[in-house]
């Protein structure tokens, strides 16, 4: 597989307001083994979030590996380093943290949001996501209004959101009537979450 600069530029899709999107199907080597190992070995956490006067479970399981943390599978370190090389001209800094989400079935989801904790709120960045397991829709919409973009992310696919995407656009993984488990692996630079 080739991650040359020309290829990186050729695949990129410009979105409005300085955001871009880069999708590569089948990017992750040996996704079956990685999915099975992460599903089995990661100490998944069900977080709760306060909503008005109640606390409700967040509808997906999570685990976050901040900069410097030991990762649960060697393929994650390899993917992180490969992504750092691919997006070096955009970032000029390495991907450091790894966020994991497990969507147990179609009723797990994430609502519209941008990754705006930290520098993503004010600076261009790249958030690169490797999708494993069941295929799910991945939606993006401009914060200022306008047409949304519907993508489908499947087993082993890479989806990178770059430029201003975290502050000028939002993304979501909606509920679907029927889906098997999906794991999302998000790579971010230090200070972005
Ligand atoms: O499931 C995904 O790939 C998206 C996850 C996401 O947007 C997040 O955790 O910030
Ligand atoms: Fe996100």
TrEMBL record:
GO biological process terms on file: DNA alkylation repair
Entry keywords, A to Z: Dioxygenase, Oxidoreductase
Pfam families attached to this UniProt entry: 2OG-FeII_Oxy_2 (PF13532)
Source organism superkingdom: Bacteria
Residues in Fe2OG dioxygenase domain copies: 94-191
Protein name: Alpha-ketoglutarate-dependent dioxygenase AlkB
PANTHER family in the cross-refs: ALPHA-KETOGLUTARATE-DEPENDENT DIOXYGENASE ALKB HOMOLOG 3 (PTHR31212:SF4)
Species assigned in the record: Tsukamurella strandjordii
Single GO molecular function: dioxygenase activity
